[in-house]
Design a protein that fits this description.
3-stranded antiparallel sheet, alpha+beta, 5 strands, globular, 34% helix
Length: 113
């Protein structure tokens, strides 16, 4: 299903029931739990990031990053485009929780979209 948005951008909405995959990771020495929701065709469409204690800055940043990542995917931005756009260290490692999550997405999710 798609929903038109202002400016002509189309947002592909997720079905009410959908497959999801959850995995754990560490970033900045903090534990995070990441859940990726998929469309019926296996394309990732949403991400939830939970980590740190409620009220911590990193928790707010992670939650906001997940919302932005989800909206980008729902509007058709390929994961590889996002992966190449995020800030990286000189060694090519993700400099933010958003980049770390994109890098950690399952291989099947990376190939989709």
């Amino acid at each position: 299903m798609t929903a038109p948005r202002q400016g002509g951008a189309i947002r592909r909405t997720l079905p009410q029931r959908r497959a999801a995959e959850t995995f754990k990771m560490r970033f900045w020495n903090q534990p995070f739990t990441v859940t990726v929701g998929f469309y019926a065709d296996g394309t990732p469409g949403e991400v939830f990031i939970d980590g740190g204690k409620t009220g911590q800055d990193i928790q707010s940043t992670a939650r906001d990053a997940a919302v932005v990542l989800s909206l980008a995917m729902q509007h058709g931005t390929p994961i590889e485009t996002i992966r190449h756009a995020v800030t990286r260290s000189g060694a090519g490692e993700a400099a933010s929780i958003l980049g770390a999550v994109v890098d950690a997405l399952p291989a099947t999710a990376r190939g989709a979209a």
